[in-house]
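Data deposition worksheet. Section B asks for the primary sequence of the deposited chain exactly as it was used as input, without tags or linkers unless they were present during the calculation. Section C holds the resulting structure in token form. Section D is free text for depositor observations; keep each observation to a single sentence. Incomplete worksheets are returned to the depositor.
Section A, Depositor: J.P.
Section B:
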Amino acid sequence: MKTAGPRGRHGDHVRELDSGPVVALLLFEAADCLMAMPASEVASLQAPGSRGASADEGGASVAWIDVDEYFTGRQSDGPWLQWGRGERCAWLRVGWVVEVLACEIRALAPMPGCFRAEGRGGAFWAAGVRGEEVFLLMDPAKLADRRNGLTP
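Section C:
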């Protein structure tokens, strides 16, 4: 079954989605780039400037990662996102949250092998398009592993 998609805020043409698998992605800006992560992995959001609440539960060390600083060396003043997947979690600071985007899985293009290799580019699974803008689908686990000195 096909349904007409809404016109986007950037004047996107009306798109048709078929019944293929769709994932909800939290779209955000960091390091002067649009990035995304699975929205189901975002547990909470803290306002910009607040880092007072302890995310360390049960004595486990939780990584606090400023995504701007990680990729560019410049600190962000945006909100903190609490990311979690199974037993793993981290707090990620982003420039700003754009929206939650429904994205067909088949519309995502896997990152080429040279970009998935060791280094900061290895933190991304795929690239997608929102209107005329490209975004990178990030794997927060890779950032947390690197921050904690683990090799992915």
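Section D:
Residues 31 and 68 are 4 Å apart (CA to CA).
Residues 1-14, 53-59 have pLDDT under 50 and may be disordered.
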